[in-house]
Amino acid sequence: MKKNPSYDSQGNILVRLLVGLVFLSEGIQKLLFPAADGAGRFAGATEIICGTLLIIGLFTRLAAVPLLVVILVAIYITKIPMLEQKGFWATAHEGRADFCMLIGLIFLVIYGAGKYSADSNLSKRKK
After folding, report:
1. Neighbours of 33 (CB within 10 A)
2. In this structure, are residues 91 and 79 in contact, taking their beta carbons and an 8 Å threshold?
3. Which of 13, 23, 33, 90 is the most buried (most CB within 10 A)?
4. CA 50 – CA 41 distance, rounded (Å)
5. Residue 123 CB-half CA count within 13 A
6. Residue 39's pLDDT is what?
7. What pTM did the predictor assign?
């Protein structure tokens, strides 16, 4: 089996840290301030657990899937109505972080955790 060239990339860790830290902090805020941040404990717990897994690079592709669901629901619930009310540019401005998280998660599902990750260490042990 041919090795994916992005596997050896050092850049994967940057994407993992960016996406994981944002979801981890958002999840913590949802648990600390449930009245202000809406979506609740389930989404917060999912973001904390899966965000942490992304940061350490453990079960990266698997951990990205629930976060994809969370971000797609968030976009559907918050940004689609805004698009209809305020137009494209206001929505693009408000949705930039959501869009970045979406693209980052898609990247991680496709390319995985990369060389510097718990997934990589597990893979080396199996061989």
Report:
1. 11
2. yes
3. 23
4. 14
5. 16
6. 55
7. 0.86
Assign residue 114 a region (left: φ > 0; alpha: ψ between -120 and 50; beta: otherwise).
left
User: From the DSSP assignment, how many helices (H) and strands (E) are in the chain?
Assistant: 8, 0
Q: Which two tokens stand for residue 104?
A: 């980052």
pLDDT at 86 over 50: yes
Q: What are the boundaries of each domain within the chain?
A: 10-119
In the block, which residue shows the tokens 């596997």? 7
Long-range interactions of 75-79: CB distance < 8 A, separation 24+: 75/102
CA distance 105 to 87: 26
Q: How confident is the model at residue 124 (pLDDT cuts 50, 70, 90)?
A: confident
Q: Within 10 A of 79 (CB to CB), how many other CB atoms are there?
A: 15
